[in-house]
Amino acid sequence: MTAGLPPGPRSRLANTLRLVRDPLQHLPRWLATYGDPFRVPLLTGTVVITADPTSIRTLFTADPDSFDIYSARSLVPVLGAGSLILRSGPPHRSERRVLTPPFHGARMRAYGAAMAEVADLQLQRLRPGQPFTALALGQAISLDVIVRTVFGVDDDAQRHSFRAAVEAAMATTGPLLLFVPAFQRRLLGLGPFDRLLRAQDHLVALLRAQIAAVRPHAAERGDILSLLLQARHEDDTPMPEQDIIDELRTLLIAGHETTAIALAWALDHVHRDPAVLAQLRAELAPLGPSPAPEALAALPYLGAVCNETLRLHPVVLGVARQLRVPLELVGYMLPVGTAVLINIFLAHQREQTFQEPARFNPARFIGAAYSPYQYLPFGGGARRCIGAAFAQYELKVVLGTILARAELELRDLRPVRSVRRNLTMGPGNGIPMRLVRRRD
Asked: At residue 404, does pLDDT exceed 70?
């Protein structure tokens, strides 16, 4: 056994800036230089990074109470202190039990019609020949899905207000504010952190007003906000209003950008490979121009395309755990306080698991099974993303609806670079496309 930490690059400032600016360039280089695991000192503390399935299994199967949340303070202004992501121990387990039901089973599938309707409405706003970006289309769809199914906003004017507030909140959440705590300082109301706080305060005010409007009728509604208002902890106490607001903010961050980015990458890959597009169209054809959401969700090749998109482009690069107790990780004894980051991107690029890992090949998900320590686009263990099933369902329904209802084409066939947006990575050019025709 080796005492202490594995090797790695040294400069905290330089490492932080590298991971903010271009992580996909530096992470593979560090892995090749130092091996797995390797250590990266950052301004938020030292992180040990791994992508090895053995190490991932160790972390995902360990006692959840042996970990703290890494760099939690830097996320509070965006997610709120009551966010599930920022909880640990018994509070995390209690909150997770309350939040799980709306995102699974019949409850989740009930939102399929809204997902398909929103996708169709956004397509109807495009004219043949009109240029757009796949990312902007995905953002418009995913945001409207959240406003309808999660926030429970029914009125068109209210939806517009919410969309504007959400867009402002996302626009002010830059990566430096999230990854460099020193930037989270007020500057006489004029700095970027001041703008972030104003945008978040406005969004919270809208959410608080929506809670007040929905609460008297919650039992008659099916949106996620109404379900949270009716939810009870094991001691039969309701969720505090501030906790509901923080969970809604978290669902926004976790569900808006992530689904939009995944959809954009899927549209890019599908339209770059004629064979993939032809196979998808052949699978979709028997369902007609208005396929039912459940029928789309059951299509094997469509599901494989979505899985392969999330393998090549995990929207969040990694998940971190900070040690409350010492941990042995493949021969290294890591001390208390060390943060261990499972790098999803590197795990999905392992040649030992995925042959030709840089190639978009949906067929690798047909008739094959990968362990949760090999394929993990939504993290894993006790802290796996609670909205994973909802996100996968939405991606299949929306992508299937778009391909059934419209013919699109790429406007730029040059390789697309993935860039840091905030907590997420996304296509740097947004994926320029145009509408060829709609199938009405």
From this structure: yes
Cα gap 119→140, rounded to integer Å: 9
Domain that holds residue 149: 2-438
* CATH number of the domain to which 168 belongs: 1.10.630.10
Mean pLDDT of 382-403: 93
The residue among 377, 372, 343, 370 whose CA lies nearest residue 355 is: 370
Distance between CA atoms of residues 264 and 21, nearest Å: 21
Residues in the chain: 440
Q: How many structural domains are present in the chain?
A: 1
* Other CB atoms within 10 A of residue 153 CB: 24
Phi and psi, residue 374, nearest 5°: -105, -40
Largest CA distance in the chain: 66
**Helical packing angle, 89-99 and 241-272, nearest 10°:** 70
CA-to-CA dists, residue 161 to 79, 142, 258, 339, angstroms: 20, 16, 22, 39
From the list 242, 321, 245, 246, the residue with the least C-alpha distance to 72 is 321
pLDDT at 1 over 60: no
What 8-state DSSP symbol labels residue 147? Answer: I
Distance between CA 174 and CA 44 in Å, rounded?
16
The dihedral built from the CA positions of residue 112, 117, 122 and 126, taken in this order, carries a sign that is positive
Please give the average per-residue pLDDT across 194-210, as a whole number.
Answer: 92
pLDDT at residue 25 in the model: 92
